[in-house]
Amino acid sequence: VQLQASGGGLVQPGGSLRLSCAASGSISSCNAVGWYRQVLGKERELVARITAGGGTNYGDFVMGRFTISRDNAKNTVYLQLNNLKPEDTALYFCKCNIWTSNYWGQGTQVTVSS
To answer: How buried is 41 (Cβ within 10 angstroms: 0-12 exposed, 13-18 middle, 19+ buried)?
Structure first.
C-alpha cells in the first residue's frame, strides 16, 4: 500500500484545513489508518485513528477540533482540522496498519500563523 498525503498549507489561527490520505490500493485492506504529526526535535504523536470498522480515537490535545473519516470508495482517509492553533503547526503523516506491518505516506506541512 502506498499512501499520498495532501491538503496542508498555511492558515491563520482559528482556520480550517482538510487533509487527505489517498491509498494506491484498497484502503479497506488497512486494519486502521492513523494521522500522526511531528515537530522537528520532538517525537511523532498520534492525532487521530480510524479502524476498518469505523471506530475512532484522538489525541488528548484534539479536544473535539479534528474529525477523521474514511471513504472506502475513494480509497481515502480524511482529517478535518478546525479551530487550528499555532501549536498545531507540524508535519502531518498518515499510516496504514495491516496486521504487523505499517505503511507510511510522506508528510504534508500544516503551518498555523497570523
So the answer is: exposed
